[in-house]
Amino acid sequence: MLSMEVILHAGNARDFVFKAIEQAANGDFTEADSLMERANEEIHQAHRVQTSTLQKEAEGIEIPYSPLFGHAQDTLMTVKTEFNLIREFIKLYKKSSER
């Protein structure tokens, strides 16, 4: 099911970004960057699944309403926001460690 695929990848991304900020807080910026890369890959995979569904509707294929798909989109959007915020926090940790 496509909705679950989006939720799965978004959940994986969320796990990676929160592990990344933990690593940054501990001063392991190499690992933090690696985890953020993995999170970004998961976000892209989730986005591809979402986009393929939306493209079908744009092509005129009727997609029935699905609360689960709405939840999947909400989860992905939230994780993308968390990713962007945590990326900035990691930059702050890096600057702070240089002092």
TrEMBL record:
Annotated keywords: Magnesium, Metal-binding, Phosphotransferase system, Sugar transport, Transferase, Transport
Disulfide bond recorded as keyword: no
Cofactor list: Mg(2+)
Classification via PROSITE patterns: PTS_EIIA_TYPE_3 (PS51095)
List of residues that carry Phosphohistidine: H71
Biological processes, Gene Ontology terms: phosphoenolpyruvate-dependent sugar phosphotransferase system
Molecular function terms from GO: metal ion binding; transferase activity
Binding positions for Mg(2+) per the UniProt entry: D74
Domain of life per record: Bacteria
Cofactor note: Binds 1 Mg(2+) ion per trimer.
InterPro entries xrefs: PTS_IIA_lac/cel, PTS_IIA_lac/cel_sf
Catalytic site positions: H71 (tele-phosphohistidine intermediate)
UniProt-recorded name of the protein: Cellobiose-specific PTS system IIA component
Lineage of the organism: Bacteria, Bacillati, Bacillota, Bacilli, Bacillales
